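does this look right to u?? flavin mononucleotide version
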Amino acid sequence: MTKPQPLRDTKILLGVTGGIAVYKSAELCRMLQRAGAQVRVVMSEAACRFVTPLTFETLTGHPVGIHMFGDTGGTGGTGGVISHIELAKFADILVVAPATADYMARCAQGRANDLLAAVTLAHEGPIIFAPAMNTGMWRNFATERNVSDLVENHGWHMVPPGEGHLACGDQGPGRLAELGDILDAVCAVRRPKLMGKKVVITAGPTAEDIDPVRSITNRSSGIMGCELARMALYHAALEVTVILGPCPAEPPWGSRVIPIRSAREMQVAVNAEAETADVVIMAAAVSDWRPATISPEKLKRADGTISLPLVPNPDILGELGARMAGRDRPILVGFALETDNLLDSAQDKLKRKQVHIMVGNMARDALESATTEAVILEDNGAVWESGRVTKTELADAIIDRISRRFAQS
Ligand SMILES: Cc1cc2nc3c(=O)[nH]c(=O)nc-3n(C[C@H](O)[C@H](O)[C@H](O)COP(=O)(O)O)c2cc1C
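got this back:
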């Protein structure tokens, strides 16, 4: 029986930097090839001090890229000039394993001071990196900052280091991830979860005007919706539309933004976009009420109490759920922000609003925060509790649940 080849027709550039785990990169190269990938290798000069390029040249049948200007520098490579642009264009995916602290620091700064860094800068596809180093180096503030910059701002995919005995004798985090985990990460990137899907996301608060200068709004930061948009793009959604209330969060580059102010404006935009969407995620905090009238002039200050009559806003999610009931598409995802009885309230809302997935979180954990604790409930009975996670991690988990539904249908 022939083995499945999840990376068939995939061109991978394997970047190898100068850490003690370099000896494992040769095995990784073989694993990628066995999974069907065409592999070419670029080594840093430091990496060539640990293992000679000959190993990789023999495994791949291609010269190894080392030097930007083609001199061998005594490292034993073939020394021909291999253009960094040509290499960057060759690769569907760049995999860097091991990734040294120094390489990551240079890439976080956008430097191009050796062949691998230049290829990394020029490469426009996904980048997977597997850091490996001594525990002290890994825990250093500068390394932490560079790693989070590469993941959060540059969009790289990290396969984090494992814990255990390190070659330097220390015990702790820093050893290269298991090679199987690196291979899995490459395969996951090759099969992006929302390939070709049209995703509509509402984000942020609404603002219901009282007069020309005052409004009723809420404390939604918009971060959750914007992180969902980032993750949807990351998983190759064809089109990501963010229907965005007034908030400081910035939707990711590449998303289409429809700015709105009131719940009624949001409803018009949602209804128009939902018709052709594969997924609608309602992460906005929509005001339940609005002032019965909007004063055309600024209300004047006066002594004593005033009262402001409020009328209910449309239930955007409920109405959409009722209209789409029984349909597989779009997959509808709602959010329940509660101050008590999270699980019961989210369960109730899942049924009442007739959505496929309901994400519940507590106001005290989620509002104006980059982290949250959530529960994801599905109409098939599945329940997942996140524990304390960043909103990026929660967004990834929600996309994962959505993609499983696509895979099942
Ligand atoms: C024996 C030895 C082992 C090393 N192991 C590592 C390591 O595991 N991780 C790391 O980040 N740096 C390690 N270094 C330091 C790097 O080799 C050094 O920072 C180098 O400049 C990295 O260059 P590169 O990123 O271009 O490969 C090691 C150095 C030596 C001499």
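The pocket of flavin mononucleotide is lined by residues 17-21, 44, 46-47, 100-103, 132-133, 137 (CB under 6 Å). idk if thats expected tbh
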